[in-house]
């Protein structure tokens, strides 16, 4: 008789969790890339097609060409909005570079800590001394 192998190796739930975590990340990255590329093509493809048509036949009205140009500019304006919405790493990098987007480095206080800090019986820190002069 051949000994039967265990049906599931040890740690299979961990490997499944690892696989699910990475597949979710891959799905989110694919979704973000799809949205960005889709918006790029919707905004810039008409501009490029019209640009080629203008070079070949010169039959594109100037106002229509301007509208398509501004549609592409609007797409470029949307990219800094889309990236932080979908990409946590981009948001962190922007937080490091742009001072107004920075969060405090320490851990966020819990509701209990906030309630103790704001209650009359809770611990209080000494007020900072007032400074006179520059």
TrEMBL record:
PROSITE patterns: G_PROTEIN_RECEP_F1_2. Residues 104-134 are annotated as: Disordered. Residues 112-122 have a biased composition (Polar residues). The chain crosses the membrane at residues 26-47, 67-86. Keywords: Cell membrane, Disulfide bond, G-protein coupled receptor, Membrane, Receptor, Transducer, Transmembrane, Transmembrane helix. InterPro entries: GPCR_Rhodpsn (IPR000276), GPCR_Rhodpsn_7TM (IPR017452). One of its GO terms (biological process) is positive regulation of MAPK cascade. Residues 1-83 form the G-protein coupled receptors family 1 profile domain. GO terms for molecular function: G protein-coupled serotonin receptor activity. One of its GO terms (cellular component) is plasma membrane. Its main location: membrane. It is a multi-pass membrane protein. It is found in: Cell membrane. This is 5HT6R protein. The gene is Htr6_0.
